[in-house]
Design goal:
The protein has 211 residues and is an alpha+beta fold. The protein is 53% helix and 22% strand. It is elongated, with a radius of gyration of 36 Å. Keywords: Membrane, Transmembrane, Transmembrane helix.
């Protein structure tokens, strides 16, 4: 336990237990709410990436020109390409998902795919339920496992937090009940001691009360 001057300050564990046990604690409520929401979102993203992993096709994309698209206060490299798949050619603009704050950084990223060069590219099948357009990067197994396991772990931690709250609440209620019973026994003991120490009334006092 740390101290400030001569006054001891509660430890982190004590504060943590307090915020778990106290009724209506904003920290506890927000932690549980965000834990479940974020966990579900991450798991959903993982299954979406898994879906993409099993529904993509590989084409060839030739870069015709490069420019920048300003979106969400960021510069996003845009490659104007000609895609080829099964002898079908389509002109398309492929926009980078990652944005950059500085123009030099954006152009440096754009030069990874140079004009008049052809690169493999990926998109969803034509009959895919959730369609997605051409992109440079292959869907990632690492994202699949990372998102699904990460989301499940977050849900487990949130559930453990709820179980901890129930446990600490039960312990607190038992301690309060024991304290109340101890106080009652102490009061009864004090009353018995006061009664035993009080002398019986004198004969004259008794006669006065009877007159």
């Amino acid at each position: 336990m740390s101290t400030v001057g001569n006054i001891p300050s509660p430890s982190f564990c004590s504060k943590f237990k307090y915020y778990i046990v106290v009724d209506g604690s904003p920290l506890y409520i927000n932690a549980v709410f965000l834990g479940y929401i974020i966990g579900v979102v991450i798991i959903t993203a993982g299954f979406y990436e898994l879906y993409r992993l099993y529904t993509y096709i590989v084409g060839k994309c030739q870069v015709k020109s490069i420019d920048m698209k300003f979106r969400d206060s960021k510069l996003h490299p845009r490659w104007n390409i000609t895609s080829t798949y099964e002898n079908k050619t389509i002109n398309y603009s492929l926009i980078a998902a990652d944005g950059f704050s500085y123009k030099d950084s954006a152009w440096s990223h754009a030069q990874k795919y140079q004009i008049n060069h052809t690169y493999p590219c990926y998109r969803s099948k034509n009959d895919a339920l959730l369609a997605w357009t051409w992109q440079w990067k292959l869907p990632s197994k690492f994202k699949v496992y990372g998102n699904i396991y990460g989301g499940v772990l977050l849900l487990m931690i949130t559930t453990i937090l709820i179980l901890w709250r129930r446990r600490y609440r039960k312990i607190q209620q038992e301690q309060e009940a024991e304290a109340a019973a101890s106080n009652f026994d102490r009061q009864q003991e004090l009353q018995s001691m006061n009664y035993a120490e009080t002398p019986p009334p004198a004969y004259n006092e008794v006669m006065q009360t009877m007159i």
